[in-house]
Specification:
Blueprint (H helix, E strand, L loop, with lengths): L2 H22 L3 H20 L6 H40 L3 E4 L5 E4 L11
Helix pairs in contact: 1-2, 1-3
Length: 120
């Protein structure tokens, strides 16, 4: 690898660290800003001549480890978003109030749609 490839590997480590922080803070805007920079850096790394030296191999392995870690963080974030969406959907589908009639049947008491509910 050339000197610029080594610099790109180091740059990728910095970007992956920034991505990790953004994932842990749920900073979606930050993740969006990082994506083009990561793609450009990765394209330069992939285009580099594959003549690695031992220090470059270690750097490339660190990039792989950090990328795998971030992939797990992405998956966890997506699971969290899916869970939150599921909770919201369940809440929306839930009936507001319920009561029981004299015969023991459950009855739902929903305020009419489009009216203002006043509370004492």
């Amino acid at each position: 690898m050339s000197r610029s490839a080594r610099a790109d590997l180091a740059r990728m480590l910095v970007l992956l660290d920034q991505e990790k922080r953004a994932l842990k803070q749920a900073d979606m805007a930050g993740l969006i800003r990082l994506a083009p920079r990561k793609e450009a850096t990765l394209a330069r790394i992939e285009a580099a001549e594959p003549v690695p030296k031992s220090d470059e191999v270690d750097l490339a392995r660190q990039v792989q480890r950090d990328a795998a870690r971030n992939a797990q963080l992405f998956e966890a974030a997506l699971r969290g978003l899916r869970d939150a969406r599921s909770l919201i959907e369940r809440f929306k589908a839930r009936r507001d109030d319920q009561t029981y009639a004299r015969d023991g049947e459950r009855h739902y008491v929903d305020p009419p749609r489009g009216t203002l509910e006043k509370r004492a």
